[in-house]
């Protein structure tokens, strides 16, 4: 088998179309902008839907030029770009598989050429595939999950590094599963552990250059990821009900964490993780 694997779109309908999700996730920003990312250039991966869409549109409201990167959900991506432009921002979308280094280098070049630089990188793209038994996780699935969830963060961070300068920020998306585990998401939760370690290590590596690296660890959030194959169908009706708040979160309840870590409001924070997770008390 090759060291790389193709996207597992046909196996379980991932990444999933937000346009077909019912009820529709809440992604629109809830508060007026304050120019916290004025004149900044931001890349948001997985920006076509869910947390990525909410983050991209919030960044646009706060004055950023936004490039969203996505795999194949063109209708969702177009809607996100239109929503960013409606906020008065310049925005465009790039469809690609971030699991390969060359594609990540191509993304960085396209954004820098179009917007003149890169200030903020949000590594949000991810995939998950539930399995009850570790023996059911195929070699292809294991490779693919690591490619999308952690290799892409390395590759894209490498690719944008020449453009980052003092005041730039990288914000990675880890998960509550990194902290409390997940019996059905062994490969996914393992990548999230790697992402947290990567965040902490890269923050130390770049601190001397004034570049901050932090992460967000969402709990159960109502996005296409789970209902379109990321969770068994019989578990969807109770999705998020085991949180202390008794419900799943919405994308626009997570996006402000990404904004805070991307802007100067968090200027004395690096190597840290925020936890919009519905009330789980998490150590670390």
**Major β-sheet profile:** 7 strands, parallel
The CATH topology label is: Rossmann fold
DSSP strand (E) fraction?
5-15%
Q: Spell the H/E element sequence.
A: HEHEHEHEHEHHEHHE
| Named CATH architecture | 3-Layer(aba) Sandwich
Gap between N and C termini? 37 Å
The helix-and-strand class reads alpha/beta
Please give the CATH class.
Answer: Alpha Beta
Number of domains: 1
What's the tally of helices? 9
Can you give the helix content as a percent range? 25-40%
Mean of residue pLDDT values: 90
Extended strand count = 7
Assembly state (oligomeric): single chain
Q: Spatial order of the strands in the main sheet?
A: 3-2-1-4-5-6-7
Low-confidence stretches: none
Rounded radius of gyration (Å): 17 Å
CATH homologous superfamily title: NAD(P)-binding Rossmann-like Domain
- The geometry reads as globular
Protein name: NAD(P)-dependent dehydrogenase (Short-subunit alcohol dehydrogenase family)
Region (Disordered): 1-32
Biased composition (Basic and acidic residues): 8-20
GO molecular function, one term: oxidoreductase activity, acting on CH-OH group of donors
């Amino acid at each position: 088998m090759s060291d790389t694997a193709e996207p597992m779109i046909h196996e379980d309908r991932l990444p999933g179309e937000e346009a077909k999700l019912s009820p529709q996730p809440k992604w629109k920003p809830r508060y007026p902008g304050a120019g916290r990312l004025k004149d900044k250039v931001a890349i948001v991966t997985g920006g076509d839907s869910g947390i990525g869409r909410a983050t991209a549109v919030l960044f646009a409201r706060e004055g950023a030029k936004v490039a969203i990167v996505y795999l194949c959900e063109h209708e969702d991506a177009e809607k996100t770009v239109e929503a960013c432009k409606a906020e008065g921002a310049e925005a465009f979308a790039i469809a690609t598989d971030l699991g390969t280094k060359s594609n990540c280098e191509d993304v960085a070049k396209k954004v820098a050429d179009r917007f003149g630089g890169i200030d903020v990188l949000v590594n949000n793209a991810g995939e998950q595939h539930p399995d009850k038994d570790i023996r059911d996780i195929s070699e292809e699935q294991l490779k693919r999950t690591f490619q999308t969830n952690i290799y892409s963060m390395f590759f894209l961070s490498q690719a944008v590094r020449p453009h980052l300068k003092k005041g730039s920020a990288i914000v990675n998306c880890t998960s509550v599963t990194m902290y409390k585990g997940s019996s059905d998401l062994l490969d996914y939760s393992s990548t999230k552990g790697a992402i947290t370690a990567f965040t902490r290590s890269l923050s130390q590596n770049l601190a001397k250059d004034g570049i901050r690296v932090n992460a967000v660890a969402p709990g159960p959030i109502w996005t296409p990821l789970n209902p379109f194959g990321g969770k068994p169908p019989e578990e969807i009706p109770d999705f998020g009900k085991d949180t202390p708040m008794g419900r799943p979160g919405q994308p626009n309840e997570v996006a402000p964490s990404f904004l805070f870590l991307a802007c100067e409001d968090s200027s004395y924070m690096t190597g840290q993780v925020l936890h919009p997770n519905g009330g789980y008390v998490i150590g670390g």
